[in-house]
Specification:
The protein is α/β, with parallel strands linked by helices. Helices cover 37% and strands 16% of the residues. The protein binds zinc ion.
């Protein structure tokens, strides 16, 4: 079994400080927070950008500031989000790809969020995939539903995605596949051969599915984006969430990958 890659998702588009006072928002806060996550065992940082009012933004300058400040502080792998809440079209959502982060998220299908559509039509997916290929950015395929997994394989057949894929199974989003062992096993059994995979279990299934993922040989994402409150009234910092996964890994005999080791596991150039 490969060493465990822990991805920290510190900010997201939705959480606010009123829900979790530890939420990092500005580039300085995000960089300092990510550095603490790195010390706690994270090898990848999944990054969303916020504007001065704390709202989601696709402003290239904000992404640039975050990337520079993170790189000043640590060697963590930077993964930018191109998710549906980040903007309307591929140009807006994919603007950050031009900064050549080592990775970027790529949702390969549409589903629902709690109150909006996780809108990823085929043309947009192909355009984002093309931009990532052009800039040497490894996609993390975000799978909210089984059809997105199958569509990723279709894109490999069409030459628009390159193997080995890295797939993040996002479970527990209201309106998409729910977070339970049956759904996780179904997704894991359906993974394409030779891929690497992780689980981002949103909300109340976070503890159980994170543990299952690391026992099954998958990798794990955690952070305030996924669990603003681990239990009601118990918000934790991103580093504390990463520490929890790292200690679970110790209990189940999984070593933690450094960013350098994660680069090899993920096939980053
Ligand atoms: Zn995200």
């Amino acid at each position: 079994m490969d060493k465990l890659i822990i991805t920290a998702a510190p900010t997201g588009n939705v959480p606010t400080r009123s829900i979790n006072p530890f939420l990092p928002v500005t580039p300085d806060e995000i960089a300092a927070d990510v550095s603490l996550c790195r010390q706690a065992g994270a090898a990848v940082a999944h990054i969303h950008a916020r504007d001065e009012k704390g709202k989601p933004t696709t402003d290239l300058n904000v992404f640039k500031a975050i990337m520079e400040k993170v790189r000043e502080q640590c060697d963590i792998i930077v993964q930018f989000s191109t998710g549906a809440r980040g903007g309307s079209g591929a140009a807006e959502r994919g603007a950050c790809i031009a900064l050549k982060p080592e990775m970027a998220s790529l949702s390969t299908g549409s589903s629902n969020f709690a109150a909006s559509v996780n809108y990823n039509p085929p043309g947009l997916i192909k355009e984002l995939a093309g931009r990532m290929a052009e800039h040497g950015v490894k996609p993390e395929i975000e799978v909210f539903d089984i059809s997105a997994l199958e569509y990723a394989e279709h894109l490999v057949e069409k030459g628009l995605l390159e193997k080995p894929l890295h797939i993040n199974l996002v479970l527990g989003v209201p309106g998409s596949m729910q977070g339970n062992p049956r759904n996780l096993f179904y997704m894991v059994e359906s993974l394409p051969a030779g891929c690497t995979w992780s689980v981002a279990a949103i909300g109340k299934s976070h503890k159980q599915l994170s543990a299952l993922a690391l026992v099954l040989g998958g990798h794990v994402r955690t952070g305030i984006e996924d669990v603003p409150e681990l239990e009601p009234g118990n918000p934790l910092s991103n580093a504390a969430l990463v520490e929890r996964i790292a200690s679970l890994a110790g209990i189940y005999g999984r070593e933690i990958a450094s960013p350098e080791e994660a680069r090899v596991i993920l096939g980053l150039k």
